[in-house]
From TrEMBL:
Keyword Nucleotide-binding found: yes
Domain ABC transporter intervals: 3-241
Gene3D superfamilies for this protein: P-loop containing nucleotide triphosphate hydrolases (3.40.50.300)
One Pfam family cited in the UniProt record for this chain: ABC_tran
CDD domains: ABC_Iron-Siderophores_B12_Hemin
Protein name: ABC transporter ATP-binding protein
Lineage: Bacteria, Pseudomonadati, Pseudomonadota, Alphaproteobacteria, Hyphomicrobiales
GO molecular function: ATP binding
Family per similarity comment: Belongs to the ABC transporter superfamily.
Keywords linked to the UniProt accession: ATP-binding, Nucleotide-binding
Species this chain originates from: Microvirga puerhi
Length: 265
């Protein structure tokens, strides 16, 4: 199974945002990092996937099936979008919001949980080191802890397509690595198609199998992260120079620098 974006156009009222955007195919089991400057359209593209934004033209194809023709329930079962801004409903505990994310898969009003669901929630909370917080009300958590709960909600859904919008922006360095490692592992184990919007290019280079660079609502560059990061199109998208280096541990380190300094060299 693969995912292809074909000639996608989107506008907020009179303001065009995505222009004939084409990318893919993105394969199952692969983690793609979606990068690009502020306002380039990353979140908007995710909204087109989830159905929250309706494209003016073009298609998103899962295999050869257009997501737009799926019924809402089927679409939300197959595609999960973890947005940037997570609401905090104070009345529910961590365990409850994650269980609710799992149970909402089946739709309807029957929210009784089976043993399998309870076990899955427990396992996912454990893998994110959240077991100690499971009875805390969500509204009392820190921003980073809430972000981890959002990731737990995404993982218990087990979608075909997982979209994470800056999932590590509020996390400390250890948690950033842990979360991306878990997302990478789960993507492979469950053969999901995962796209993670990231601002940190070093994290993108380290964890992504593929990189999509968005600029002004178009794909500026796409492909192997190391190759893409060396292209002029990627530097131009951010208006910076990009220096790449391998650390002694083998990780790719990405050092962006201001273009004015680049010109002076
Ligand atoms: N609800 C909206 N109504 C009108 N314009 C919007 C709306 N949401 C986003 N935009 C505009 O669409 C463009 C793309 O925004 P989007 O949030 O998709 O970018 P992004 O790449 O995710 O940015 P960031 O990296 O800052 O999160 C921006 O110019 C933004 O101002």
């Amino acid at each position: 199974m693969s995912l292809t974006i074909d000639d996608l156009n989107f506008a907020y009222g009179p303001h065009p945002v995505l222009h004939r955007l084409a990318a893919g195919p993105l394969e199952r089991g692969a983690l793609t990092a979606l990068v690009g400057p502020n306002g380039s359209g990353k979140s908007t593209l995710f909204r087109c996937f989830s159905g929250a934004a309706r494209p003016l033209g073009g298609r998103i194809l899962l295999d050869s099936q257009d997501l737009a023709v799926l019924k809402d329930r089927e679409r939300s079962r197959r595609v999960f979008h973890l947005a940037q801004d997570l609401s905090a409903r104070a009345a529910l505990t961590v365990f409850e919001v994650v269980l609710l994310a799992r149970k909402s898969l089946t739709g309807g009003m029957d929210l009784r949980a089976g043993l399998c669901d309870l076990r899955l929630v427990q396992t996912v909370l454990g893998s994110l080191d959240l077991d100690g917080l499971s009875q805390r009300h969500i509204g009392t958590l820190s921003g980073g802890q809430r972000q981890l709960v959002g990731i737990a909600q995404a993982l218990v859904r087990e979608p075909d397509v997982l979209l994470l919008d800056e999932p590590t922006s509020a996390l400390d360095v250890r948690r950033q690595l842990e979360v991306l490692q878990i997302v990478q592992r789960v993507t492979r184990e469950r053969s999901m198609i995962t796209i993670v919007a990231l601002h940190d290019l070093s994290l993108a280079a380290r964890f992504a199998d593929r990189l999509l660079v968005l600029k002004d609502g178009c794909i500026a560059e796409e492909g192997d992260p190391e190759e893409v990061l060396q292209t002029q199109a990627t530097s131009d998208a951010y208006r910076v120079g990009i220096h790449l280096e391998r650390s002694s541990r083998g990780s790719l380190l990405v050092e962006p620098y201001l273009s004015s300094l680049r010109a002076a060299e």
